[in-house]
Structure formats: C-alpha cells, structure tokens
Amino acid sequence: MPEKSSGLEGVVIGESRISSIIGTKLTYCGYEIDDLAENAEFEEVIFLLWNDRLPNEEELADLKSNLFKYMSVTSNNSEQFKAFAENKGRAMAALRTSISYIGIFDEKADDMNEEANMNKAIRIQAAMPAVVADFERLRNGLETIAPKEEFGFAKNFLYMLFGEEPTDTQVEAMNKALILHADHEINASTFTARVCVATLSDLYSGTVAAIGALKGPLHGGANEQVMNMLTEIGSVDKVEDYVYKKLENKEKIMGIGHRVYKDGDPRAKYLEDMAKRLTEENGESELYDMSIKIAEIVEKEKGLLPNVDFFSASVYHSMGIPHDLFTPIFAVSRASGWLAHMMEQYRNNRLIRPRAEYVGHVGRKYEPIEER
Ligand SMILES: CC(=O)SCCNC(=O)CCNC(=O)[C@H](O)C(C)(C)COP(=O)(O)OP(=O)(O)OC[C@H]1O[C@@H](n2cnc3c(N)ncnc32)[C@H](O)[C@@H]1OP(=O)(O)O
Ligand SMILES: O=C([O-])CC(=O)C(=O)O
C-alpha cells in the first residue's frame, strides 16, 4: 500500500502548466499575480489560463464578444430560475443548480473535442456572473438586467447586479478581485473538478462539482464567514475578547491559515489595500481596523496569517454586495481556473482514483436479521 497523507497534504497529483505556487510567489502561466493584478483585464486572464498565453487584440475582442453573447441568459423568463431565487438564503445552492440546469439545454454538452470544450467553457464562464446577478435581482422582486456589449466582464457583472453603471473604482476593485481569485493550483474545488472530468464527464458536471466544493467554509465559503464574524464582533474593542475565546475553545478564525502558504498568502496584501481604501471611502474603516486586530492576535498566538478570503469580505461589503454573494463571486472568478484545469485534464487524461487504508472490521459473517 502506498504512503498515506492526511488530507492529501503535500501529495503531487500530476503536472500542470496553469498556476504555480513557490514560497509566497503565485504565477499564472508564468506571469506573476502582481503583474496581472496591476495591468490586466480579467478577460485577458481567462484567455491566458485557457490558452497558456495572453491574447492579441483580435483574440481578446473575440473572447469578449463571445462572453457577452452568452452572458444574456434568460433568467427573467424562466420559472425555474425564479424558483431558485425565491429560496432566498441559498445563493451557492442556486448557482450550483443553475449551472446544472443550463447544462441540460446545451446539446453539445457531451462533445469532447477541444473546440467543443472551449465553446462550453465560454458559455459556462459567461453564465456565472449572469446567474449570480439574476439570482440577486429576482429574489428582490426586480427585473433582471441585460449586459451591455461595450462593458467588460467586471463592469457588466456589477451592472447586472445593481442595475446602474458602477464607478471606475468599483470596476477596478472587481476586476482585481476576479484576477486574484482566478486560479490557485490544486485547491479543493479545482481538484474536485479534475476528478470529475477525469472520468470523461463533461464541463458542466465538473463545474457543478467544483461549486459544491468551493461552498464549504474551509474553502471559498470562508469569505462569507469572515463577514459574519466581523458583524458579530461589531467593534474594535470587542476583538480581543472574541478572538481569545475562540482560540481557547479550539475554534478556527475564518479567513486565516492556509494549507500551502505558511509565510502568507500573496493575494491577501492586495485585498488588504483594497479593503483599507474602500472601507475608508465608505466611512466603515472600523471593519478594516477590526480585521487588522484579529489578524495580529492570530499571528501572535498561532503564527497563522490571513488568506485570500480574509480581506475580500470587507472589500465586497464596501461595494454594497450582499454577504451571501461573496462565495458566488469567488465562483464567478474561479470558474476560469476550473475550466482551464478541466481542459488540461482532458488533454492528458487518466482516471483519478487513489486508495484508502482499510481500518474497519474483518472476517465478519452474515447474521440472519432475527439474530441481530
Ligand atoms: C480560498 C481558500 O480556500 S483559503 C482557506 C479558506 N478557509 C479558511 O479561512 C478557514 C480557516 N482556516 C482553516 O480552516 C485552515 O487554516 C485551512 C483549512 C485553510 C488549512 O489548514 P490545514 O493545513 O488543513 O490545517 P489544519 O486545519 O489541519 O490546522 C492545523 C492547526 O492549525 C490550527 N488552525 C488552522 N487554521 C486556523 C484558524 N483559521 N484559526 C485557528 N486555528 C487554526 C488548527 O486548529 C490546527 O491546530 P492544532 O494543530 O493545534 O490542532
Ligand atoms: O489553494 C487552496 O488550498 C485554497 C486557496 O487559497 C484557493 O483556492 O484560492
């Protein structure tokens, strides 16, 4: 029996050309995350992850136009989407079900060639922000908003969500957040997606499986939990009491710690800067101050540092985004990475099927029911 590793820690499951983590340096296809976050548009990053190179002008225009085309999903006219939205508190479940639902109507869902998969990837990537925005509007009894061709991905997402043109600062913040969350090597949801399509299942199934994995509070679901924690604490003077109690009870502080980064998550500093700026602009800098204090105590007591989810909570909150949409927004971005990984998996596929060490009963004999 091969060696076992709790939680598959440190296990290398195969080769990938998509993203790399070395120490605290994160790169997408060889480009440092800082370079991309400072300079790129999210659509360029999507193209990069899917094609292993940045697009030229024509390719970018083409991708944008295709994304726009499929962003206009018809949630307004769908009784199914309305029913998903009526179940008000279950945004990630609605997203998961909506992507599955959209997949039913793609006649080419099971076509497996490279071109068919690229087309499906565009459809799925485009549907994600539309479904999240439509869910928010429909659950509030509002009409859904069609995207505009002249807007980019980040701007359209905010426009479809709020029904009004977002400010440049909001678009910049959303674009950066989308880039920073786009891919992260073999994180739990990406691994889930790869396991799913390694059976030669389709991209919709892989995306649905990945959404399910991202939803958990130890992964993408942590950003919503961070906001719940900040709301529960309420003010800077209550931080110490709250955090020490949690640590004494061996409870986790959400948004802190990471399986791979032990010296800090390189994405966190961007989100921290954004959180500082946006909470100040919003007159809610106490959220930022509370976050800093929480992070200081956990670092001092446990040597653990904030991950990508920690400051993204205050960033999204400051942008007026409802708290249960924080994890769906993560999914909108991470879909680009999931799709890149699933297409990479198809290119060099082998079924993913590890082993477990059996520690159960042995040698039992069937007992007739009346003797049990
Ligand atoms: C996008 C993302 O997915 S980023 C991660 C988002 N998740 C969170 O923020 C949830 C909070 N953090 C955690 O639960 C963890 O740090 C994880 C799951 C992210 C990674 O941790 P792992 O490598 O699996 O470490 P594990 O959970 O085994 O913890 C190791 C030790 O650190 C402690 N620890 C880890 N994270 C935390 C935390 N956030 N707060 C308090 N203690 C923590 C554990 O209690 C454990 O302590 P012990 O050895 O005394 O029992
Ligand atoms: O890599 C991980 O384990 C979790 C993470 O930070 C991410 O998915 O962005």
Automatic annotation (TrEMBL):
Pathway: Carbohydrate metabolism; tricarboxylic acid cycle; isocitrate from oxaloacetate: step 1/2
GO BP field: carbohydrate metabolic process; tricarboxylic acid cycle
Catalytic activity: oxaloacetate + acetyl-CoA + H2O = citrate + CoA + H(+)
Gene3D superfamilies for the chain: Citrate Synthase, domain 1, Cytochrome P450-Terp, domain 2
Keyword list, A-Z: Transferase, Tricarboxylic acid cycle
Gene Ontology MF term list: citrate synthase activity
Residue numbers annotated as active site: 258, 309
Pfam families in UniProt: Citrate_synt (PF00285)
GO cellular component: cytosol
Family: Belongs to the citrate synthase family.
Protein name, entry field: Citrate synthase
Gene: citZ
